[in-house]
Amino acid sequence: MSEQPVLSVQGLSGGYSINRPVLHDITFQVEPGEMVGLIGLNGAGKSTTMKHILGLMNPQKGNIQVQGKNRAQHSEAYHSALAFVPESPLLYEEMTVREHLEFTARSYGVSREDYETRSAQLSKMFRMEEKMDSLSTHLSKGMRQKVMIMCAFVARPSLYIIDEPFLGLDPLGIRSLLDFMLELKASGASVLLSSHILSTIENYCDRFIVLHRGSIIAQGTLKDIQEQAGKPGMSLEELFNVLIQDGNGE
Amino acid sequence: MNLRELYVKRRGQFWGEILPYLGYVIQSGVAVVFLFLLIAFAAWYTALLQQVPPDLPIRWIMLIILVPLMINSSIRTYLRTADTVFLIPQESRMKEYFRMAWFSGVVYKIIGLALVQLILWPLYIRSDVSPKWLLATFAVLVVFKLLSSYGSWKEQLMVSKNAAAAYRALRWIVTALSLAAWLWHPAGRALIFMTLLGLTYIAALSVPVKHRVAWERLIAVEQRQASRVMMVLSWFVNVPQREQRVHARKWLSGWGKGLAWNKASAYRFLLIKSLTRSDILGILIRVGLLGAFLVWATRDTLASAMVYLISVMIIGLQLSALRKLHPESFWLHVYPLPQGTRRDNEGKLIFQVQLFWAVLLWLPLIPEALSAPGRILGTMAAGVVLVFLFRSTAARKSRREEDDE
């Protein structure tokens, strides 16, 4: 592909303590219109990788660029190009669902007309129309998660970082989310998605990055990973088990 | 598990977290201002005692000051969210834990009540035509304080929130009627009335359905109380903020809709929503209304200027808590807000709201504008200068903090 990658992570090492990095020399890219699955066991480094991309942690080594820009020099442009859905909903208790969407739209510079169109579309898609004027404290966990997803989607940046989005969502919510991600992908947006529901993301992601103990142990399309593991025809879940066992030296 | 020890340990942990900040509070200029106000109040009160105005409605004054103190029955339980899992097996024994909480809450409040009674007493015995005895009045206050605390605790256990609200209103009525009976009527007749009323109230408390332990409500109340302590500390020093109570206030939900639709005002939008639904706004309204009333009551004296400036100052202090609401907000790190807009929006909003209250508090002085134009306009000018002083001090502090970072 000749296009500039939406996300480029080069030689990233980092963690909470300089002496004990959690991530070791992580390198990958996400291209425009691509959906990439970031998979690994608990504590493999998925969320830490995402925190580095979001600028919540500073790399000890390496470089991260979003749309060709790094955070230190182009903070506003960098953050404008990405939206994040966290694993656990982080909402302002003093705001309603509608106000969360409005705050996000204002922060990303979305026009009022686009905000209104998108907000109506998203509230319908996630069956939140009746809850739009409810304070976030009055929402169930699944609904709170839907608000997080709606906020990310109202911004329409070029890159979505989505951490365990299916937790707490009902089956219809999961279906709506997956359908909408495909729609965004078709429109040229990119998604970096972390999930443990491998059987689901196997059918949706173009490529996968397998993290284990802070290092990438395999990456590529399902076919590429099957070849790397020497297990053609295996499902992603089976492949993952094989790779992890190999990574553990078992 | 020793629940008494657990309570003592948790209380120690909380106050161990607070005590280090008290040094900063004492050192801060605001503490000196409060000390000055205390001295000014003492001087004014001594002068008042020397020349008590005839026909002073002392019984009403006693009633208005003492009833809220008798009603206030907050109890610190130090409960935590995880207790709904780890302490539930101990539910049948939680009385030991709550007994400690209840006693330590009540004892301090009775000491406070006694102190206020002692301060009011010289004025009372000089003004009332047939004052009651000091110790008998103290006994009445203590008995109804205990009854109010008992009632408040039962309200927290009630399953129905509506029933709890109704019983809270009943508690106010019972307390106010009892004290009024004591102040206005002969002791014997008043005691009979108070006993009957108290017993009826206790019987009424047994009617509503109650939880054995209302875990979620008690935890929410505890979080609110802890955050209030932090909010008061935040007037003097930077402290980590805790979750504030959220009030729906639908009548104010339109505030912020007219803001310019751009990135620069996005943070202002968040701040407006935070202010609209926070405890801060409730305090502003109470301070503002009380201040306006006192300014109006003292409008023909120089004391009105003092009351006015103190009210504007308290409002400024309250508003400064707004700066502490979102210092570590996750989304403010992730969203592409233009650099510097947080500080600018905070400063501007706080300045505008304080100025609004400065004008509002000045309005009760208008009737005096013709008779004492210099004093009335001078008061207004001093208020505006005070608001500007608050803004420049906050801006300097904010710049210094940014430089430190």
From TrEMBL, chain A:
The keyword DNA-binding does not apply. Residues 7-238 form the ABC transporter domain. Gene3D superfamilies: P-loop containing nucleotide triphosphate hydrolases (3.40.50.300). Keywords: ATP-binding, Nucleotide-binding, Transport. Coiled coil: none annotated. SMART domains: AAA. GO terms for molecular function: ATP binding; ATP hydrolysis activity. InterPro entries: AAA+_ATPase, ABC_transporter-like_ATP-bd, ABC_Transporter_VariousFunc, P-loop_NTPase. It comes from the Bacteria. This is Multidrug ABC transporter ATP-binding protein. The lineage of its organism: Bacteria, Bacillati, Bacillota, Bacilli, Bacillales.
TrEMBL record, chain B:
The keyword Endoplasmic reticulum does not apply. InterPro entries: EcsB_ABC. One of its GO terms (cellular component) is membrane. Keywords: Membrane, Transmembrane, Transmembrane helix. It comes from the Bacteria. Signal peptide: none annotated. The chain crosses the membrane at residues 21-46, 58-79, 100-121, 133-153, 165-184, 190-209, 280-297, 303-322, 349-366, 372-390. It holds the Pfam family EcsB. This is ABC transporter permease. It comes from Paenibacillus solani.
